[in-house]
Amino acid sequence: GAAARRGMRLPAGVRERVAAVHGGAELPERLRLYDGWAARYEQDVAALEYRAPQLAAASLAFAFPAPPAGARLLDVACGTGLVARELHRRGFRCLDGVDGSAGMLERARSTGLYRQLRPCVLGREPLPAPAEHYDAVTVVGALGEGQVPSAAVPELLRVTKPGGFLCLTTRSNPSNLRYKAELEAALEGLERQGAWQKVLAQEVERWERATSEEESTQGTGYISGVVYVYRKCPVPPLEEG
After folding, report:
1. How far is residue 100's CA from residue 151's CA, in Å, rounded to a whole number?
2. Beta carbons of 108 and 79 less than 8 angstroms apart
3. Which residues, if any, are the signal sequence (predicted)?
């Protein structure tokens, strides 16, 4: 439809860079692509109207029972710091980040929004954090085909405090549907084991602009996505008084 063709009017460079990182490249090559993309990443995602950082931060702020001033957060696959900016606007100040790309970490460092930034390729290595350390963990945009495997989800839980929140996102476009089904099976399995409780699963229609006709939802020119929020068990009892 006309809207999908508008999506195709994204600058060719944006389309190519997005296609490259979501393509079948092996991990070292993909991290190199992210390093090379770091300088133009924020203007590219602005062109894509990428809404995941705002949506995730809003969902997490909604889940938190108390003002988050002292809450410790880990932003996994933090990229250039888009999620940190949104969390900061909502009063979260204690942010740590990890990413597999040195180029992205350098950009994130320049924002001044993080207390600590460390390299980590989730799925290949454990998170550089002790068990039960964080009040919340976010993984926005990195849970997808050829990126962070769904098998890495328990590692996110490991570093979260009991009663803490995990905010995850994935895309619902055709090329990510197999991954999404795998991810949801992993999320539901952990819920059945009593590892966490689901707080929220919100499907969002206009997640970001599609980079190809095939990926677009019903000719809208956009792809859809989903935000999940879980709370790690056991959830602490309400304090008396």
Report:
1. 17
2. yes
3. none
pTM equals 0.89
| Residues 228/169, Cβ–Cβ less than 8 Å | yes
pLDDT at 31: 86
Report the distance separating Cα 135 and Cα 240, nearest Å. 21
Residue of 145 and 121 predicted with greater confidence: 121
Note the Cα 60 to chain centre separation in Å.
12
pLDDT at 55: 94
Structure tokens at 62: 């909604």
Whole-number mean pLDDT of the chain?
A: 90
Greatest Cα-to-Cα distance within the chain, rounded to the nearest angstrom: 60
Average pLDDT over residues 4-13: 66
Amino acid at 128: P
**SS3 per residue for 105-131:** HHHHHHHCCCCEEEECCECCECCCCCC
